[in-house]
């Protein structure tokens, strides 16, 4: 049957290339280009088959295996999601500490700016009071500048003139200083008010960030709890799928054991018949049962699900359902029966071919077009392809038994 385990894909592709070269030396082509094209198609078919891993397994095994792999994949995704959520929560908690520090700094700056504003406002009030007193004195006619001018006119004592002038100058300087101080205090007050506004905006911004962080932490906490529940549920599903797969595996292994006994019996019979094989006038290469690409070559490989090492005792041809399958040579139909693993089987005895007793076996058939004991001729339709038995899709598993032993069919075409 078809499709190797992924661990041996590269080896299978390499083996396929070697088999193709070997087959090419045994069956000369009429045209070198056609031969190369044919080999290229076969290589592509081998590579394609290497991407599919679930044939040679019962339908129950494929279903159980697929379910188990799906559960494992989902569990892995859920665990990764949980880890991501937990990481994001840790980051949010770290940000919370940083935001808290920034909020505290902004609040402290606001307190300082507010105190500075109050002091500035008081300073402006004091300066304005001084200016108001100066204005009142001026209105009452006691402006020091006027007083000084009167003194200059009325005082006859030149000795007092210098003192009077100094006093007038001092009074004027004081008034100028008071007015300048008021202007400075008002400018400082305006700057402080801007600082207070900025501090309030910073506090509001940091408070909003803190509130958003709290909300994000809550969201992530809830998400982490949901993710944990999902992981727990998926662990249960994986365990259930694994138990189911074990039950199916036990049943399949029993069938495989029966198949091995059946194949051993068939080989023994064919070996016994080989000594008495008659000739059906076959010579040269056998006829391929259908013109189709080889989707899985002859050879040893690991079972994709149960991982035992076994022989793929034929080649799989990628034929569609109900494709007519031809007799590979002149011969007689010796057996037709159903196997739980191989599905509908047909054995065609070709007698002696190049000195060897040859029997070819067609597997996974939909129906038969001949009967046991019937003699057939090369190229005659003997059956229709299908997907009975252990098969994931319509194809032909074709086996060539040489003196009772399976050989690579590609060496005989």
What would your notes on this structure say?
Keywords: Coiled coil, Signal. The protein is of the alpha+beta class and 413 residues long. It folds into 2 domains: 52-260, Helix Hairpins (Orthogonal Bundle), CATH 1.10.287; 275-413, Glucose Permease (Domain IIA). Helices cover 59% and strands 16% of the residues. Strands 1, 4, 5, 6, 7, 8, 9, 10, 11 and 12 form a 10-stranded antiparallel beta sheet that branches. Strand 6 (331-339) and strand 7 (343-353) form a beta hairpin. Helix 1 packs antiparallel against helix 2, helix 3 runs antiparallel to helix 5 (158-274) and helix 4 (144-154) packs antiparallel against helix 5. The radius of gyration is 50 Å and the shape is rod-shaped.
Topology of this protein?
Layout: H1 9-26, H2 32-49, H3 59-139, H4 144-154, H5 158-274, E1 294-296, E2 299-302, E3 309-312, E4 315-317, E5 324-326, E6 331-339, E7 343-353, E8 356-368, E9 375-376, E10 381-385, E11 396-402, E12 405-407
Notable characteristics:
413 residues, alpha+beta, Helix Hairpins, 10-stranded antiparallel β-sheet, two-stranded antiparallel sheet, rod-shaped, disordered N terminus
Q: Give the N-terminus to C-terminus distance in angstroms.
A: 19 Å
Question: What is the CATH C-level name of the largest domain?
Answer: Mainly Alpha
The coarse overall form would be rod-shaped
Give, in order, the helices and strands. HHHHHEEEEEEEEEEEE
């Amino acid at each position: 049957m078809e499709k190797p385990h992924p661990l041996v894909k590269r080896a299978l592709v390499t083996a396929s290339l070697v088999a193709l070269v070997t087959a090419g030396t045994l069956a000369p082509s009429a045209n070198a280009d056609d031969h190369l094209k044919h080999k290229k198609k076969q290589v592509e078919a081998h590579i394609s088959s290497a991407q599919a891993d679930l044939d040679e397994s019962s339908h129950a095994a494929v279903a159980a295996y697929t379910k188990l792999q799906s559960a494992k994949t989902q569990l892995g995704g859920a665990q990764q999601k949980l880890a991501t959520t937990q990481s994001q929560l840790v980051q949010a908690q770290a940000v919370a500490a940083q935001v808290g520090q920034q909020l505290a700094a902004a609040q402290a700056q606001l307190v300082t700016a507010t105190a500075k504003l109050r002091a500035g406002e008081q300073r402006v009030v004091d300066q304005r009071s001084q200016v108001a007193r100066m204005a009142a004195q001026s209105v009452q006619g006691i402006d020091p500048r006027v007083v000084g001018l009167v003194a200059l006119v009325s005082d006859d004592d030149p000795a007092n003139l210098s003192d009077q002038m100094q006093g007038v100058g001092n009074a004027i300087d004081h008034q100028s200083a008071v007015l300048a101080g008021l202007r400075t205090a008002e400018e400082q007050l305006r700057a402080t008010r801007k600082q207070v506004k900025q501090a309030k905006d910073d506090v509001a911004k940091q408070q909003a960030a803190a509130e958003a962080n709290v909300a994000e932490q809550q969201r992530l906490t809830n998400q982490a709890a949901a993710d944990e529940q999902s992981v727990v549920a998926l662990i249960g599903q994986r365990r259930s799928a694994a138990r189911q797969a074990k039950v199916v595996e036990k049943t399949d292994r029993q069938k495989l054991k029966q198949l091995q006994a059946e194949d051993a019996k068939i080989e023994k019979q064919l070996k016994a018949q080989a000594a008495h094989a008659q000739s059906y006038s076959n010579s040269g290469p056998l006829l391929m049962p259908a013109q189709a690409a080889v989707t899985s070559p002859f050879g040893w490989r690991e079972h994709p699900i149960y991982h035992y090492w076994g022989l793929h005792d034929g080649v799989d041809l990628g034929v569609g359902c109900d494709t007519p399958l031809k007799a590979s040579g002149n011969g007689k139909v010796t057996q037709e029966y159903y196997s739980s693993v191989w599905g509908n089987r047909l054995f065609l005895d070709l007698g002696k071919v190049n000195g060897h007793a040859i029997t070819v076996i067609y597997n996974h058939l939909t129906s038969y077009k001949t009967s046991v004991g019937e003699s057939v001729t090369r190229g005659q339709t003997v059956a229709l392809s299908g997907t009975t038995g252990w098969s994931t899709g319509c194809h032909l598993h074709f086996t060539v038994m040489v003196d009772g032993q399976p050989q690579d069919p590609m060496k005989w075409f």
